[in-house]
Every structure is written in structure tokens, then in C-alpha cells.
Amino acid sequence: MLADIADDGLLAEAAALAGAFVAIVQHSGRRGTHEEFETLVRGLEDAGVEYPENVYVQALLTPATRQQIADFAQEFEEAPAQSIFNDFKMAALNRCAQAAEWLAAHATPEAAAEVKASIVAVCRLVAAASKEEGAMNNAPGNVDDFEVSAIDQVSRALGIG
Length: 161
Prior knowledge:
Elements: H1 10-25, H2 29-50, H3 55-58, H4 63-75, H5 82-106, H6 109-128, H7 145-157
Helix pairs in contact: 1-2, 1-4, 1-5, 1-6, 1-7, 2-4, 2-6, 5-7, 6-7
């Protein structure tokens, strides 16, 4: 159920950027990075299943979002330069803040909370995706301090906590 919610793709872009920010905050090698971006797509699919009646959650994953995430996976196969990472981080957090403002103006508080919770849950899934490099990084659920900080920043940008 993909309804036109007249957000010009804002919510989907916020979700994609937030998940990608968490994926690139700690580089995990080529295979690990692709796994994180695949987890981002699966997490957004799962959010749609969890909230089938919430048109805003349904709008988080569109064909354009899928393509954007695939492009990010290619772009960030190698660790980005610090300046590129910083610009990406600011874009992600700004988009999340804009999404929170849009939701406050257009969605019920319950629907907005479900969207925000979905985005943060997807970020947690991305962080928990297994990493490629190093014996200590191969365990699922291995989330480092950088990823925890990134998720906290996304949560704050969305107006949670």
C-alpha cells in the first residue's frame, strides 16, 4: 500500500540517509558495507509489514529509495574521506529533523511515533549487521560506540529522547 502522502520523498530520504549514516560511521569493508545496506532495505521492508496501516511508514521504502540505497552501497564500498562523511552526516541529521517537523504538521502523534521508531529500529539493524574485517567484528550484534553515537544522533534529530 503506497499512498501519496505529499511529502516529496522526505520521509523515505530521511530513512535512507539515517540508515546509510549508521552504515558508514564505522567502515566494515566491502562485503560488510553491502550487507549493511541490504539490511537497511530489509529493515524498511519489515517496518512496512509491522505497520501495514500507517501510510507514512509505507512511504519509507519506494523504488527511488531502493535505488538511492543501492547507489550508497556502491559509493561507500571504500571508507569515505572525513569531509565527505561529515557532509553526509549533516545531510542525514538535517533530513531527519525536517522529517520530524513534517510529521508533526501532517501526521497523528501515533503515526509519527511509528515512523520515527521504524527509522531508529532500522538504524539498529544496520549497526548490528555483521562486519567483514577482524575476528572480533564477525559476531552478529557487534555494535561499536561510533554506531551507538550515530543512532543517538538520529534519534535526537527525529525528536526522540
